[in-house]
Amino acid sequence: MSLSLHQRIGVDLGRDMSVEAAIAWAAENDLHFLDMQTDLPPNALHDMPARAGAIRAKLTETGVRLGLHTLSGVNTAEISPHMAEAADAYLRSYIDLAAALGAGWVIVHAGYHFTSDHAERRQAGLERLKRASDHAGRLGVRLLLENPNPEPKGAEVHYLAANLDEWLWYLDRLDPAVVGAAFTANHAHLQPEGVSGFVAAVDFARVGEVRLADCVGPIEEHLLPGEGTMDFAAMFAAIEGRGFGGHYMNQFATAQAMRDARPWLVAQAACAGVPVAAS
């Protein structure tokens, strides 16, 4: 089924609702794409397997497409004893749950470092993502590696894969048959290359999701579109111009705000000459 741009824009609800309620709400509001976090209540990870069958049936009934979004606070680049094994188990659990739910993707992160241990943690995170992708490949689950936000220069802790070169470094070393990209445009807006630089450099055949919010900088914010300095018209023109036909994902404010922002976003795309009707 061909979708309009309005229908291609989904919402990341985090853990604001149960997955079951979120699917029903999405179907009622002509939302076709959801991201959910399943760490803590109302979607506690240890409770989810027992609910998986009913959720999978609801996704089939409504046609809503679900993705799982792991927490960036769980350090994929963990190197300490016990904690390293736990990080592996965390990713495996999300992949297993995605397979049980019939989720279309799992958003993952490269982890973070503490400045002096950058090289060690970057390699540890890469090896962990390779192990996760091996497991995901066996189960037919798609992973999407997100470009996280940059932290202030004076911060002790920094996300890995936040800058363009490092994000591409990971993607170049991970199996494209299993690991795609989740492109967060507002994070790219905070980098020297800007959104246009990221869009020009990344292989959009690997981009499974484009994530949206507004910001001003230099600190990350998740503002409503139009409240910051993002040029959404230029962004849509650049991304759609690369042949992207996938979905977008709002992540800001409330569920209602993310739902209600879609017409404004579509209008920005239309102003840039982007086709917005279903083809």
Architecture overview:
The chain is α/β, with parallel strands linked by helices and 279 residues long. The chain has eleven helices and ten strands. The chain has an eight-stranded parallel beta barrel. The protein has a two-stranded antiparallel sheet with strand order 5-7. The radius of gyration is 18 Å and the shape is globular.
Describe the largest sheet: 8 strands, parallel, barrel
Number of strands: 10
Radius of gyration: 18 Å
Give me the number of helical elements: 11
Which H/E pattern describes the elements? HEHEHEHEEHEEHEHHEHEHH
How big a fraction of the residues is strand? 15-25%
Topology:
Blueprint: H1 5-8, E1 9-14, H2 19-28, E2 33-36, H3 48-62, E3 65-69, H4 83-101, E4 105-108, E5 112-113, H5 118-139, E6 143-146, E7 158-159, H6 164-173, E8 179-184, H7 185-188, H8 194-201, E9 207-212, H9 232-241, E10 247-250, H10 255-260, H11 262-271
Parallel strand pairs: 1-2, 1-10, 2-3, 3-4, 4-6, 6-8, 8-9, 9-10
Antiparallel strand pairs: 5-7
Helix pairs in contact: 2-3, 4-5, 8-9, 9-11
Task: Provide the descriptors you would attach to this structure in a database record.
single chain; 279 residues; alpha/beta; TIM Barrel; 8-stranded parallel β-barrel; 11 helices; 42% helix
In short:
With 279 residues, the chain is α/β, with parallel strands linked by helices. The chain has eleven helices and ten strands. It has one domain: TIM Barrel (Alpha-Beta Barrel), CATH 3.20.20.
